[in-house]
Amino acid sequence: MRVVLFDGAAREALLPLTYSRPVADLRVGILTIAEKWSRRLDRGVDLYTQDYLQDEYPVELGDDNLLIDGSLLPSDELIGLLRDLPPNSIENLNGEALVARLSAGPAREFLNGAEVEVNQHGNLAGMPLLRVNRPADLFLLNDRSLRDDFALLTEGRQSAPLSSTNTLIGPTDQLFLEEGVTLEACTINVTSGPVYFGRDAVVLEGCLIRGPVAAGAGAVLKMGAKVYGATTIGPSCKVGGEINNVVFYGNSNKGHEGFLGNAVVGEWCNIGADTNASNLKNDYGDVKVWSYPAGRRVSTGLMFHGLILADHAKVGINTMFTTGSVVGFSANVFGAGFPPGFLPSFTWGGAEGLQTYRIDKAIATAERMMERRGVTFTERDRKLFERVFADSERYRRDY
């Protein structure tokens, strides 16, 4: 059986994070959604996404295909339903097809948005689904996902030893170090959740870490960093300052002082020193954030909601963000004062004025940052920048 995770209705609501990746390539917890499914089902998975991204994610259909909405996280209940799903059937929830088991022809039609005449079921109704419907769900589900992924990755394995220079508060089985981790003179509290450090992660002296927290392979926690759960620090990220319930994707930097909470930071981002992003309004009221489907700011029903920062965004020193700010792909934000709460992709500037960030300049910046990490900016990357620049143009018309 082939397993395909497809971009469903949630994809637009997850912009700007999904400009540059399939929904199932979003990270929540230690693993991406696709990695979770692959491990839970013990098989490879394909990702069906937008046409301009599909070359990077080839899909091979077979005679029997299990199609799963990429916004769904695996759970015991859902996996049980999938194992019992009969051929030529679709599972719907509130009129939305979330799961299907189809042969190659109907599967291709389904993925292309066509109606498929097969058996329709409603067994998902009443099931406690874990689903990423908006960017906030990434930090809201991060606690549960960190615990689930920690158990999945560490079961039956032994952690590398912890140096005696550290202080561990809580049971030793709630801390796991992969090979090559550097960790000295830090305080780690696992009474509130597990802590995981990936291969070759570096945790410098004086860090205070309160689980659940995970740092991916090659991540660096700068001296004196204060990291509260539920936080994920993606592979090769560098972080410092105060961090609370943040999901960092790979290769991003927040290496200096400043607060970031209840937030999501994409790949290849850089956040300058002493940047602070509010996650709570002064009146303790409901946070409204920009919604791409609605084309305006909408209520989240949340008291705590911080910054959403898309891939390749750059933030200058001492930048201040209002509660629930959304910053698009390859935006470059700087200057005194609070910039608007929604900054479209390829925005240049801040509170004192905004203009379009020239695409040649944006690409040159990305090339330099990636080169510093030994990563080549490819023709595929160039085409991605050009496509997102074009797709996001309508949001920049007001300035």
Structure notes:
- The chain is globular.
- Strand 5 and strand 6 (96-102) form a beta hairpin.
- By secondary structure, it is an alpha/beta fold.
- It has eight helices and 35 strands.
Question: Could you tell me the radius of gyration in angstroms?
Answer: 21 Å
What share of the residues lie within helices?
Answer: 10-25%
Counted up, domains total 2
What is the CATH homology-level superfamily of the largest domain? Hexapeptide repeat proteins
Q: Unreliable stretches, pLDDT < 50, 5 or more residues? A: none
Strand elements, count: 35
Head-to-tail CA distance between termini: 50 Å
User: For the record, what CATH class of the largest domain applies?
Assistant: Mainly Beta
Helix segment tally: 8
Main structural class: alpha/beta
**What would the average pLDDT be, to the nearest integer?**
96
Strand order of the largest sheet: 9-12-15-18-21-23-28-31-33
In CATH terms, what is the architecture of the largest domain? 3 Solenoid
CATH-defined topology of the largest domain:
UDP N-Acetylglucosamine Acyltransferase, domain 1
Note the beta-strand portion: 25-35%
Task: Label the overall shape.
Answer: globular
Q: Describe the biggest sheet? A: 9 strands, parallel
Provide tags for this entry.
399 residues; alpha/beta; Spore Coat Polysaccharide Biosynthesis Protein SpsA, Chain A; UDP N-Acetylglucosamine Acyltransferase, domain 1; 9-stranded parallel sheet; 6-stranded mixed sheet; 8 helices; 28% strand; acyltransferase; acyltransferase activity; Glucose-1-phosphate thymidylyltransferase
